[in-house]
Specification:
By secondary structure, the chain is mostly helical. It has five helices and no strands. The radius of gyration is 17 Å and the shape is elongated. Pfam families: Ferritin.
């Protein structure tokens, strides 16, 4: 099915963010693992897997619309050097993804691609309601209980 080039371009822009998220979460999760922060490692490893699923869906949708997935463009990674900067950087990335998804939904609406829009709405819900909320919660916990207590809470068993 030949899709709108505007929709394909929007999906490729979103793909660039999702691919960057995979890489950023991969690096951050391995840093958490190295530091013994097992709970953060497990959560971010899970988020990396979800971003991989999002990327897979975007690639399949672009191909379905007879477009070419762009696997070479990615936004710059925001690699943190400490716990607070890592979580803040991940939040910055997720908020950019949210903005990009909203823009893609608007393009789908204008172009009459309601099936793509519907799936993007599910992706938006997953991103906003799950990961953005969790990241904001972690930053709030750091403020409420202090960094040392937060570190300790993330070590696991």
């Amino acid at each position: 099915m030949k899709g709108s080039q505007k929709v394909i371009d929007s999906l490729n822009a979103l793909l660039a963010n999702e691919l960057a998220a995979i890489d950023q979460y991969f690096i951050h999760s391995r840093m958490y693992d190295d530091w013994g922060l097992n709970k953060l490692y497990e959560r971010l490893n899970h988020e990396m897997e979800e971003e991989t699923q999002h990327s897979d869906w975007l690639i399949k949708r672009i191909l379905f619309l007879e477009g070419v997935p762009c696997m070479t463009k990615r936004r710059d990674l925001l690699i943190g050097s400490d716990l607070r900067s890592m979580i803040s950087n991940d939040l910055t990335l997720e908020l950019e993804v949210v903005s990009c998804v909203r823009e893609a939904i608007a393009v789908c609406e204008l172009e009459g691609d309601y099936q793509t829009r519907e799936t993007l709405e599910k992706l938006l819900f997953d991103t906003e309601e799950d990961h953005v909320y969790w990241l904001e919660q972690q930053l709030g916990l750091m403020e409420k209980i202090g960094m040392q207590n937060y570190y300790q809470s993330q070590m696991g068993n």
